[in-house]
Amino acid sequence: MSDPRAAVIVFPGSNGDRDLLEALRAAGFDSFPHPSGQPLPDDVALAGLPGGFSYGDYWRAGMLASQEPAVRSLSSLIDRGGLVIGVCNGFQILVEAGLLPGALSYNDPAGFRHRWVTVRCALETDSPWFRNVPNGATLRLPIAHGEGSYFHPGGFDAVASHAPLLYEENPNGSMGALAALLDDTGRVLGIMPHPERASDPDLGSEDGLSLFTGAFGAVARHPSPVAGKNEVAAGAHTS
Amino acid sequence: MFRVELAVRPRPGVKDPQAEAVQESLARLGHGGVTVDAVGRLLSLTVECDTAEEAERITSDLCDQLLVNPNLETYSVSVGEVA
């Protein structure tokens, strides 16, 4: 059986795409770059939206990228049982696309922050992303963003049950120190720190890899929801 | 044809770190009596349609669909006919 395919959507202005490709590959995926101007192929099990400055963050970070054909095709992937991760600018894009609730805005206090942070898993969840990250576990991950302050008009309580990771020390003024957010399915993850930049000991931490290996474990165990030409091969492997 | 100016600004009550940063900068220049109430964005549009009301409605549609995040922002529209 071939490894499950993972598309990393490359937008004009992405700069974290290669890091995300490498981390997904390290977790076991057959990862490949995919241009944002094309809808996703039907045979992918996972889509990753990388960090960077898509369209130069013009007008509002993630807004222009949220209208790209690859992003508009994500709902089809999600309906098929596929997984989605948006890292940093990718998180902003998922929010702008309406696939995650709320909004991300300028850091408070204002300024670009780039440093290592500790986040704590604060949720019992069946999300495939957290198969290897139990409630209470801490991860050491880097951040690098200027617009990572999470806001929801209903306050943190409105999203607390979907917030798997919280900052130990809030670097950007996010409500409830929210560092990551899941959708109702648990398969769509937006995360402001960079797990892909903490996926190898040489990078200073490999804590982030656990998110990707969790996703891989879920996909390898339940490949059938993903439609397309690989479905037969994947199903044959697990039966 | 109508010229439309769309002003988008932070919703009241939403934190505006850009305004705070500009405020501090102005204060350092000696303008302590000036308060920066909001930092927003301006979009200047030319809209092909027959009435000002239609231009305003089209602009509102653009705001609802893409240009304004209602969680964070409000907007105002001014419309003038192109001579």
Provide the descriptors you would attach to this structure in a database record.
heterodimer, A: 239 residues, alpha/beta, Rossmann fold, three-stranded antiparallel sheet, 6 helices, 21% helix, 23% strand, globular, disordered C terminus, B: 83 residues, alpha+beta, Mth169, Chain: A, 2 helices, 34% helix, 30% strand, elongated
Any overview of this molecule?
The complex is a heterodimer of chains A (239) and B (83). With 239 residues, chain A is an alpha/beta fold. Chain A has one domain (5-238): Rossmann fold (3-Layer(aba) Sandwich), CATH 3.40.50.880. Chain A has six helices and eleven strands. Chain A has a six-stranded mixed beta sheet. In chain A, helix 1 (17-27) links the parallel strand 1 (5-10) and strand 2. In chain A, helix 1 (17-27) packs across helix 5. The relative contact order of chain A is 0.19. Chain B has 83 residues and is an alpha+beta fold. Chain B has one domain: Mth169, Chain: A (2-Layer Sandwich), CATH 3.30.1280.10. In chain B, 34% of the residues lie in helices and 30% in strands. Chain B contains two helices and three strands. Chain B has a three-stranded antiparallel beta sheet, with helices on one face. The radius of gyration of chain B is 16 Å and the shape is elongated. The mean pLDDT of chain B is 94. At the A-B interface, loops of A face helix 1 of B.
Q: What is the H level of CATH, i.e. the homologous superfamily of chain A?
A: Class I glutamine amidotransferase (GATase) domain
Biggest protein-protein contact in the assembly: A-B, 18 and 13 residues
The tally of helices of chain A reads 6
How would you classify the helix and strand content of chain A by structural class? Answer: alpha/beta
Radius of gyration of chain A: 16 Å
Q: What is the chain-wise order of helices and strands of chain B?
A: EHEHE
In total, the number of domains of chain B comes to 1
In terms of quaternary structure, what is this?
A: heterodimer
User: Could you list the spans of chain B in which at least 5 consecutive residues all have pLDDT below 50?
Assistant: none
- The H/E string of chain A reads EHEEHHEHEEEEEEEHH
Helical/strand content category of chain B: alpha+beta
Shape of chain B: elongated
CATH topology value of chain B: Mth169, Chain: A
State the distance separating the first and last CA atoms of chain B: 8 Å
Main sheet properties of chain B: 3 strands, antiparallel
The share of residues in helices of chain A is 10-25%
Low-confidence segments of chain A: 224-239
